[in-house]
Amino acid sequence: MKIERIKTDLLIIGGGTAGCYAAITAAQNELQDAAGSKGANLKILIVEKANIKRSGCLAAGVNALNAYITEGHTPKDYVEYAKKDADGIVREDLLYSISEKFNDVTAHLEKLGLVILKDKDGKYVTRGNRNIKINGENIKPILANAVKKLPNVTVLNHVNIFDFSVHNNKIDGAYGFGIENDTFYAIEADAVIIATGGAAGLYRPNNPGFSRHKMWYPPFNTGAGYAMGIRHGAEMTTFEMRFIALRCKDTIAPTGTLAQGVGAKQVNSLGEVYETKYGISTSERVYGTVAENLEGRGPCYLRTIGISAEQEESLLKAYLNMAPSQTIRWLENETPSKANVEIEGTEPYIVGGHTASGYWVDTKRATTIEGLYAAGDVAGGCPQKYVTGALAEGEIAAKSAVEYIKASSALRLAQGPDARFKVAEPAEATIKDAEIARHFAEIESYLSQKNSLYTTEQLEEAMQFVMDEYAGGITTGYGYTEKQLNIAKEKIDEIESLTDKLSATDLQEVMYIYELKERLTVCKSVIAHLATRHETRWHSFAENLDYPEKDNIHWRKYVNSRLVNGEIKTFTRELTAEGQKNYEHQH
Amino acid sequence: MSINIDPNICIGCGRCHDVCPGTLIKINEQKKAYIKYPKDCWGCTSCIKECPVHAIQFFLGEDIGGKGSKVHTEKVNGLIRWIVEFPDGSVKHIDIDPKESNKY
Ligand SMILES: Cc1cc2nc3c(=O)[nH]c(=O)nc-3n(C[C@H](O)[C@H](O)[C@H](O)COP(=O)(O)OP(=O)(O)OC[C@H]3O[C@@H](n4cnc5c(N)ncnc54)[C@H](O)[C@@H]3O)c2cc1C
Ligand code: SF4
Ligand code: SF4
To answer: What gap in Å lies between CA A48 and CA A11, rounded to an integer?
Structure first.
């Protein structure tokens, strides 16, 4: 393995939706500045474990922009909607800051080449109150192309980041390895944006056999960003608000297009519409389906029988643009006009773009680690972000990071031209060398040890079974008790202790080991958060069987956590005030 | 859910390898692409859209209702044509205009 050291000003980890847009914003921000007064161009580096052309959530395409302020509505309406759906546990400042940007980032996407449906007056055609219709098949290549055109942005594809470099609670870089070029990367940066998305594959999936990766959330988003932050003591929020999607059975394709597009209602096996019985928030729709099944009225369906031939044709096409396997499923079996579409809940994911789990950030998207900013599904407190919200957060994080870099370089200049060199570098360099050696040795040990009893895959499956059975997975209808969570914690610790002995034949397999370790770290946080919230505020998402009721007196609060002496410690914080638009970290 | 690469058609250009969001596709010594981790495929079809010679097809695993059909895309007069080959030999085409938005 070669060692490559890189120095950059701004490091962006994860070249997905938020990461690409952060790069676009930072580069433009800097170019505008450069045209004015000072010349120095900011060096921006995106490090992506796959290839930014088709990585992350947008790989297959998306079917709509789910977050847009349509005519007659205001950002406040959006905030109210998201707040209601999460039953109050949101950060209004964060929601406001994205809602105010939805329409601008959408206009920018259109300029970059995204096809958006318009009426004859040139206005966007809306789907419901908040969505607009697009052809989202090529949304990721569009973003990637825009990034490629930026002269001061470098992209390292196929490089997996597995640890931050943090000293005195200040980030100064990250470590990674090229999964195909046998290279270890030690990257130094003045500021870092983490944009690695959420975490899938924590729980036993819907189709654990050959099609185990036929899941909704990308199986390659393994929670790296969460795990690295947790290990370095970053404050995290709301990991107990898991996201469970209601999806088409088997293919795990989205159901919104059926519900909103052709008005298909959820019905049980008796043909009864049951949504009115349980409510229509995102979690209630999942819960209703689970409850109908438990009470013997399953399976449940979206009622599509009888839709017109024209509607059917449009559905076949719409799914090809975002979840092609559903169209194939229809063509190989019965099409939606002839058979209702069976639905099921997925395994729980941790994803801050749909629910509110992730880094505890201030309004500028600064985490509690100095110099580290978070955007997209990895950032917490701000559910219902979707594509446009991820873009908006990428923009906010980029502006904040650039401001931070400028402020710290101004400070260094004020301390004299050589201040950084004289004071910081020799000391930092030794720490870095020792750290590089430590990481390097760890990777080498995975590559050299041969006698592991277990494979990474076996331990991953063991973890998924534990989470499924003892931490509220599909098997238990998402419910859990404190006793079960205690068992889950113990077993996850045991599995974690076995990971040191794992072996790998190449760096891709080493990546799988790190992914497993990331997931285990996230699992521990999920368990700790689930055990803390003594109520059931969101059915299915956090179905606490010891406390089956909502408790507004004690639990209208955020549950946050931090790693202290190797243990995840949870604590609560008061909700930010109604209408609050700014939140700063208290140090 | 997985894909199938026909080595007789593949020209070893490496584009599928480059775009796969899980880096699951490798190129062997004979300069042919193969999927190294078939169970890890997400079914995103990125590789299929990228292949210049249509060597890659995807299929549904039998555990999720697959019946043996194979699917790929081709670009035809600016349209994206999805081609589904059923096990009985019949074929269905669905053309999508990338300049047209989804109806739903
Ligand atoms: C299947 C699906 C369909 C969706 N459909 C819609 C829709 O129709 N409309 C809508 O508005 N929203 C939709 N969403 C939601 C929306 O796409 C996401 O919320 C948003 O794209 C998240 O952006 P992100 O940047 O946080 O994550 P991503 O775009 O997933 O980016 C994360 C990136 O980080 C990389 N990465 C991860 N770990 C590492 C590591 N250790 N080192 C380096 N790189 C790493 C990943 O490869 C990826 O490129 C959908 C989501 C999914 C999964
Ligand atoms: S369909 Fe997607 S995940 Fe599967 S091999 Fe092709 S590019 Fe990779
Ligand atoms: S894109 Fe097609 S031709 Fe190129 S390597 Fe892959 S399978 Fe072969």
So the answer is: 11
Q: Is A129 on the interface with B (CB under 8 A)?
A: no
DSSP, residue by residue, A429-482: HHHHHHHHHHHHHHHHHHHH----SS-HHHHHHHHHHHHHHHTT-GGGTTEE-H
pLDDT digits (tens, 9 = 90+) for A268-289: 999 999 988 998 899 999 999 9
Query: For B70, which residue in chain A has the nearest alpha carbon?
Result: A328
The DSSP call for residue A377 is: G
Q: What is the Å distance from ligand 2's center to B45 Cα?
A: 5
Please indicate if any CB of chain B lies within 8 Å of the CB of A191: no
We report the CATH number of the domain holding residue B37 as 3.30.70.20
Residue B101 within a domain: no
Q: Is it the case that residue B102 has pLDDT exceeding 50?
A: yes
Structurally, chain B folds into a number of domains equal to 1
Pocket of ligand 2 contains residue B4 by CB under 6 Å = no
Q: What is the mean pLDDT of residues A303-316?
A: 95
Q: A379, A363 in Cβ contact below 8 A?
A: no
Q: Which residues of B touch A196 (CB under 8 A)?
A: none
Nearest alpha carbon to residue A446 among A499, A514, A502: A502
Which residue is associated with the tokens 């990367």? A185
Amino acid, res. B89: G
Q: Is B14 in the pocket of ligand 3 (CB under 6 A)?
A: yes
At residue A40, the pLDDT reads 53
Q: Residue A324 carries which side chain, given as an amino acid letter?
A: P
**What is the distance between the alpha carbons of residues A522 and A357, in angstroms, rounded to a whole number?**
11
Smallest CA–CA separation between A218 and chain B, in Å?
Answer: 7
> What is the number of residues in chain B?
104
Atom of ligand 2 nearest to the CA of A59: 2
pTM over 0.90? The answer is yes
- Return d(Cα A27, Cα A402) in angstroms, integer: 9
Distance CA A315, CA A125 (A): 17
**What is the domain extent for residue B30?**
2-96
From the CB of residue A512, how many other CB atoms can be counted at a distance below 10 Å?
22
The answer to whether residue B28 is domain-embedded is: yes
- Residue A288 · residue B78 · CB < 8 Å: no
Q: Is residue B43 part of a domain?
A: yes
Domain contains B7? yes
Region A196-211: what's the mean pLDDT?
97
Angle among Cα A73, A74, A77 to the nearest 5 degrees reads 85
Domains of chain A: 2-56+142-243+350-423 (3.50.50.60), 246-345 (3.90.700.10), 433-574 (1.20.58.100)
Cα four-point dihedral sign A407, A409, A413, A416: positive
